[in-house]
Amino acid sequence: MSLASTFVHCPSVRDVAFLEDHLLAVNQEGFITHIGPFHSEESAQILRSKGDAEELIIIPRTGLHLPLMQWLDEYAYKAEEKLDADLGLAKEVYSKLAQRLIDCGTGAVLLFGTIKEETNLVLAEVMQAAGIRAFVGKLSMDISSRPTYREASTQSALTSARSFVHRCRSLTSHLPAYEQLVQPVVTPRFVPTCTNELLAGLGQLAQEENVMIQSHIAEAYDQVEWVKRERGVEDTKIFATSNLLTPRTVLAHCTFIGPLKLQLLASTGMSVAHCPLSNAYFSEKPFELASAIMSHMKVGLGSDIAGGYTVDIMHAMRQAVVTSKMKAGFAKTRWIDAHELAERGTPWPDDVDKSEPTTRTVDWTQTLYLSTRGGAEALGLQGGVFTVGAPFDAQQIKVFDPANGYGVGAIDFFGEVEDGDKKIDLGVLEKWWCIGDTRNRTAVWVQGKQL
């Protein structure tokens, strides 16, 4: 397959690159074999051998009022148990999820499943059939406030986790490596649902089987306080002593972790799944995203799916910027208030730095990186960027319709597009980032295959 296009990608967290009038070639295995100027000699040779190229614009790709622990009790556990009890229902739900992910341009996803092996195998099968890269985690939990929804013992939980790893891998073992889109993930739900023995066993299992680890950590005030009260230490310490903080680990949320501890966590090579909308509902505290980026921590964007109202990562990009700016404004306001009170003789608060705060925010281009290359790095993937040897995972975006002279969807052009000029620049890309939707998305590829 050959595509002639303007390609837009984020090679680094502070760089948006436009490859205008380029030709990209993809081999039968779905890997990029060439990307270069359309009129270069090498591109010309490819066109002579493969014929015409298609011209595109490509870009790599209830109960929420309750506190987290109460929401899990009243909603999440019941829903998961219902899926575990009816595999037909599970397949129906997961098939709908797969289609919505594709509609939203998501070609790679890290999923929390349920505690039953068979249900998670259905999830893996559906994602593989849909052509989506899926990291599927069978939940491990030997503690639960819902007696009917937990594993019988620590040992049975470990046995089931190991069995799932093997069975999930066997689903695609007959396929070439580049077509094996589904991977198992060791998934302790979080500290409140796992004994220390289970966590340690899962850390050992992940090391022995060389699989990824995912969990939730430091997400909400009630969860953080529960761990301190019941275990006597913070959940980050428990994960560290259980060998669960590794370069293969992705931890969601991390909102109740300050900049200094984030630097220590970054040194382990772990990644963060930043879900800004879910954090607004359950954390009541924003993630230190700007600090994480400054610490060179691997960060990808997530929707948390159940912890919000949309699976669309475009919304997560926008919400991440809003959250970052609100957080910076709050810090500045607290410093101003403390400064004014100190001038009137009130002691300076211990939790407010006396030096004037430096405004650290993220902009839209950085969140575009986090939703493409950043997410790929967090998942240990080579994609998210247009370079030779990378898998061709991308989405096609249409912002202008030359047939009628109008922008597509909510994107309007007033006097900006003349004589059929379709030049894609940073301004047009920002328009799409701000107000684009599924009407602009006309194709999605994973490993070179159009979904």
Automatic annotation (TrEMBL):
The keyword Manganese does not apply. Pfam families: Amidohydro_1 (PF01979). Signal peptide: none annotated. One of its GO terms (biological process) is guanine metabolic process. GO terms for cellular component: cytosol. It comes from the Eukaryota. Residues 66-329 form the Amidohydrolase-related domain. One of its GO terms (molecular function) is zinc ion binding. InterPro entries: Amidohydro-rel, Metal-dep_hydrolase_composite, Metal_Hydrolase, Metallo-dep_hydrolases. Keywords: Hydrolase, Metal-binding, Zinc. The keyword Ubl conjugation does not apply. Its cofactor is Zn(2+). This is Metallo-dependent hydrolase.
